């Protein structure tokens, strides 16, 4: 959703841009962070309760990717706040260099794409994990 809003671009004027930044911050703070936190905590809790999960590599990979996604969303939220403040000052005529704003925007987009790739990888790993288990089981039974 954040990528769609950023792609659409802000409405003209500094108030429109600030509204877009406030919307992005609210989405991140009130939807992304809590839902990701619940998913991360419930996943770690399921690992602790169901001990066979601790022996499976894909579970540890998913846990690591979940922690990276949580850290990335916190970083995106911080970068978005910085960009919003810089752009608002720029639009107000504070004379911030365009290069600084464009570099920060580039980093925001890069972080968003990394988050998207991590999300897709996490879903793929969660959906295809039974296939990995079956393939490994089939290989060990063929060797015996």
Question: What are the defining features of this structure?
Answer:
single chain, 144 residues, mainly alpha, 4 helices, elongated, membrane, transmembrane, transmembrane helix
Question: What does the model show?
Answer:
- The chain has 144 residues and is mostly helical.
- The protein has one domain (2-143).
- It contains 4 helices and no strands.
- The chain is elongated, with a radius of gyration of 20 Å.
- The mean pLDDT is 75.
What's the helix and strand layout?
Elements: H1 2-8, H2 14-49, H3 57-91, H4 98-143
Helix pairs in contact: 2-3, 3-4
Report low-confidence residues grouped into runs of 5 or more. Answer: none
How many separate structural domains?
1
Characterize the overall form. elongated
Count all strands and give the number: 0
Q: Which structural category fits the helices and strands?
A: mainly alpha
Reported for the largest beta sheet, the result is: none
Give the fraction of residues assigned to helices.
over 70%
Mean pLDDT: 75
Q: Note the beta-strand portion.
A: under 5%
H-E order: HHHH
Number of helices: 4
Distance between the termini: 50 Å
